[in-house]
Amino acid sequence: MEPLIKIENLTAGYEKKAIISDINLYFKSGQFVCLLGPNGAGKTTLLRVLSRHVRPMKGTVILKGRSLQEFSQAELARIMAVVITERVSPPLFKVHQFVALGRYPYTDFLGRLRPEDEYAVNRALHAVGAAKLVNREFSSLSDGERQKVLLARALCQEPEVLFLDEPTSHLDLKHRIEVMSILRQLCIDSNLLIVCAMHDVDLAAKVADQVVFIKDGTVKVWGAPEEVLDPRSVSRLYDFENATFSTELGSIELRASNNRAGIFVVGGGGKGAPILRALSRMGFSLVTGILYENDVDYFVAHSLSATVISQELGRSIDEAKIQEAIHHLAGCYALVDARPRAIRAYDRNEAILVHARQLGMKIIEPPFNDLSSKLIKETFS
């Protein structure tokens, strides 16, 4: 399949100052492309060049085999649509009227809607789940509802490519998920190319076909998220100091200073993950084990920079691992028992509990209601 958009040796900026330089990329129909990077990296500038709001200083953007500069404005309006981040609130507009503005490439001078235009408006509203808003005043909508209506207006243009700049920046969690799900489905159902600038690495890992890392005006990494999203590349992109991206979990884990006493967490099967996060948030040094190397707790613990005693897959927990755990236990102030009772492979971790009792160590057991209060006020005050 030929690329819908091809970018060759692109340099662009404002007032003779280059913001992005030497960009070489290509995007195909049906792809969801996320541009990731810190503020000021050049993501929005790239979108503005691709949508022909900014002219390149050097290089070329090829759209459907032709230079972007060769297209008339009317031609472009039938091929591409843009949704920006700025809050818009046009007065006295019903939702239907506002969405119908997206039909301007197809209507006459007076903007009169034909039956096929009305059909396109209704289809776009249904595609984004906003049909029930059709008679509402646009100014009365919530941020999430407005974003859906803005998407509907863009879809009314029946574009082949949709550019979005931070489409979830003003949205609550529910509407963030809804909007990204809608966009992902549009790629599948309509073979629409979506190019989206955003900061949310967690979401990009879950919805994108391609991610482009942009920093200091250049492309640092480009490819499928499963190939390029890893702890090192994400940390370099955003200059993280107290956070780590977990490839296995597709999320960012925050690390605290860990200047309190050491706590040993006996977990497994994901039971220890929330405990590890809570303890890290409170600033405790963490030790955990014995965990198999495919356990959720194993990945969370590594992301939190915990000391992890692990066992290879396919082997029973052996005596050497138990002795290693007991060695680390001696340097801890307390133990949290978050063992998964239903996973028999972790039964041998009982030996760690036995040794902790012999040492007279404080042991915290389920339930872990109000864990913060229990750990801070009762155990370590």
Summarize the structure.
The protein is an alpha/beta fold. The chain folds into two domains: 5-230, P-loop containing nucleotide triphosphate hydrolases (Rossmann fold, 3-Layer(aba) Sandwich); 255-380, NAD(P)-binding Rossmann-like Domain (Rossmann fold, 3-Layer(aba) Sandwich), CATH 3.40.50.
- The CATH architecture category of the largest domain equals 3-Layer(aba) Sandwich
Task: Please compute the radius of gyration using only Cα atoms.
Answer: 27 Å
Distance between termini? 65 Å
What fold name goes in the CATH topology slot of the largest domain?
Answer: Rossmann fold
Quaternary structure type? single chain
Main sheet overview: 6 strands, mixed
The CATH superfamily of the largest domain is P-loop containing nucleotide triphosphate hydrolases
Count of discrete domains: 2
Structural class call reads: alpha/beta
Secondary structure tally: strands: 17
Instruction: Give the proportion of residues in helices.
Output: 25-40%
Overall geometry: elongated
Poorly predicted tracts of residues: none
The percentage of residues in β strands lies in: 25-35%
Description:
With 381 residues, the protein is α/β, with parallel strands linked by helices. The protein has two domains: 5-230, P-loop containing nucleotide triphosphate hydrolases (Rossmann fold); 255-380, Rossmann fold (3-Layer(aba) Sandwich). It has 14 helices and 17 strands. The strands form four sheets. The protein has a six-stranded mixed β-sheet, with helices on both faces. Strands 15-14-13-16-17 form a five-stranded parallel β-sheet, sandwiched between helices. It has a four-stranded antiparallel β-sheet with strand order 2-1-4-5, with helices on one face. Strand 9 and strand 10 form a beta hairpin. Helix 12 (319-329) runs parallel beside helix 13 (350-358). The chain is elongated and about 85 Å long. The mean pLDDT is 90.
